[in-house]
Specification:
- It is rod-shaped and about 130 Å long.
- The protein is mostly helical and 152 residues long.
- The chain contains two helices and no strands.
Length: 152
Amino acid sequence: MSEADDSAAEARADQLMRRHAQGAAKPPVESDGIPTLTDLVTPGTGRRPSPPSASVDSAEVTPAQAQALENEVYQRLQSRLDREIGAVLERKVMPELSGSLDHALEHLAAELKGSVRQMVREAIEETLSQRVRNRQLPLEEAAGDDAPPDIR
């Protein structure tokens, strides 16, 4: 540090000590650089902190307020996690899952086609055999009553 910097720092320290010794608030100081913690800053020259709300002050938080805050935080976290889990599922799991599902569905479709063909074949055979039996019964009964001699 140069001597000019040292003297400027000493001057600011002296100013701070005098202000502290006086104890009274002085009008806002226009600072040439970054204000110190004890400098009053004129409105609009910097970012002012927002006033603290009563519900945030830990000394005044009631159990009901704490429960309401806990519920709100839980709901926000749950909705955020739901969105993030959905996004991860879409990006990573769905492509693999859709491939597996396509393969499984193709296999099931082929198996069902074979089963349906077999069931249709069996139903047709059963229906035909029933019709053949139904036709033979009336012929056999009629043959029993007026039976012509067997030709063999």
